[in-house]
Prior knowledge:
Oligomer: single chain
Low-confidence stretches: none
Distance between the termini: 52 Å
Helix content: 40-55%
Radius of gyration: 25 Å
CATH superfamily of the largest domain: Aldehyde Dehydrogenase, Chain A, domain 1
Number of domains: 2
Mean pLDDT: 95
Number of strands: 18
CATH class of the largest domain: Alpha Beta
Shape: globular
Number of helices: 16
CATH architecture of the largest domain: 3-Layer(aba) Sandwich
Largest sheet: 7 strands, mixed
Strand order of the largest sheet: 10-13-14-9-8-15-16
Amino acid sequence: MNASNFNSMPQSEPNSAAVNELERIFQSQRKYAAVVKASTAGQRIDKINRLKLSILSRIKELQQAAFDDFSKPAAEVDFWEVTATVLEANYVMRNLKKWMKPKSVPTNMALMGTSSQIIYEPKGVCLIIAPWNYPFNLSFVPLIDAIAAGNTVILKPSELAPRMSALIADIIRDNFDEQEVAVVEGDGETAHLLLQKPFDHIFFTGSPRLGRVVMQAAAQHLSSVTLELGGKSPVIVDKTANLKKAAQRLIWAKFSNAGQTCFAPDYVLIHEDVKQSFEQELKQQLGKTYGRTFDARQNNQDLARIVNHAHFQRLNGLVQNALLHGAQIITGGGSDESQRFIEPTIITDLAEQSEILSEEIFGPILPLIGFQHIDQAIEHINQRTKPLALYIYGRNQAQIEYILKQTTAGGTCINGSGLQAMNPSLPFGGVNTSGMGSYHGLFGFKTFSHERAVVKVHFTTLDMFQAPYTPLVKKMISVATRWFV
C-alpha cells in the first residue's frame, strides 16, 4: 500500500528554480534554528495554542476540502482529523514545561562527587512528509511535537489530497514565518529534492516501500528518522468474544475513511466455532450502519471514496484475484469506477495464494480467516511482518495475556479497534516493517529532541587513577575494579 506518492527514483531532471527555492528555505531555517532553540516553554505553548485556535476556526473549510479530495465524511474529519489534533495540542501544552526541565538521574559510586542530568535540546531542522489519507492529523500532530521540542520544520503534504494540502499550507502561512515552519507543496520530485537535504531529523508517514527510500536518503547525511508505516494489522476474535460488540466496533474501525487507515483492521482471524455466527453479525451491522443494498451504500454520505483511480483498480484487482482462487463474498463486492466507490466488502474462504493475504489492503475489504486453536492464529501472525496494530476480542483474560506475550505489534487494543491511537499518553508507532520510532505526547517531544547527557564535577577521587600508571596507581585501579565488581 502507498499512502504517499513518490517513486524510488526521480523521473526527470529537477527544475533549477525549485532546487534554488528549497535550498533558500532550508538555509533560512538552519540559520534561524538557534533562535527557536532558545525559545521558552511559554513561547512554544503560545505557538501551539495559536495553531490550535486557527484549526478550530476553519473546521468548515477543512470538512469541505476533505470532501472535495475523496468525499471524506464531515464526522470523520471532526473526529480523526480535528479532535485528534486538538487532543495532542492540549496534552502537549499542559505538560511541556515539565518535559523541558532538565532531568536529574542517579550517579554511581565510581562517580562520587559528581551530579548527572539529561537536558532536552531540539534536533534542529526537521522534515515532515505527510500522507494523503489523514492529511491534517498526520501533518499537524507531528508538527506540534516538533514545535514543542523547539525545532524548525519543513512540511511536505501529499499532492494526492490537493485541497487539504492547500488548506494546510494556508494555515501554516497564517501562523508562522517560513524560517520557522514552511510548507512545500509538490509531487514526488519535490519529495526527492527535499530528501537530498541534510536534515537533522526526518519524520515520514507512508508505506514500507517508501519508508526504505526515505531511510536510504537519510543515510547519506546520517539524519535520524522516524518512520510511521503500516502493514497487515490482524484481528483475533475468540469464541468467548461478545460477537455483536466486536462486529459493531470492527465495522466502524475498518470502513471509516473507506479503510484507508494505516492501523485499520486488515483481516480477521475468527474461531471456527463462532465463525458463521460472526459472519451474520458483521453482515447485520454493516447493513445497519451503511445500508443493505449497493445503491443504499453508494448514496450513504458516511462512506468515503478511494483516493484515486490507481488505488481503485488495485483494490478491485485484489477482490478479483481472491475470487479467482475460490474466495466467497459474504456481503458487498460492488464498485463504481466513475465515483471511485468500492462497496464495504466482507470476504472469506481465501486460498493461501490470494494476493489479498500478502498485500496490505488499505481499502474497504475485510477478509475472514478461520482457526481452531489460538496457536494457529498466533502462528499466522508471527509468520508475517510485525504489524502496526493487533486487535484482540475476547473475555478470556489468560488467553489475552498469552496472545500479548506470543506476538509483537506496534500497538494493541483489546475489545476495541483504533483507540490506541487516540491516547497521547501512549506511544504511537510500529515495529520494523510497520515503522521505526514513535510519537504522540512525551514520546513525540522526545522523538524531535536530542537527549543530551551532562555530568557536573564538584569533586572527584578519579584524578588519582590517571596516567602515568605507576605501580601504586595500578594497584588502586585493581582494588577499585574488584570493589565495584
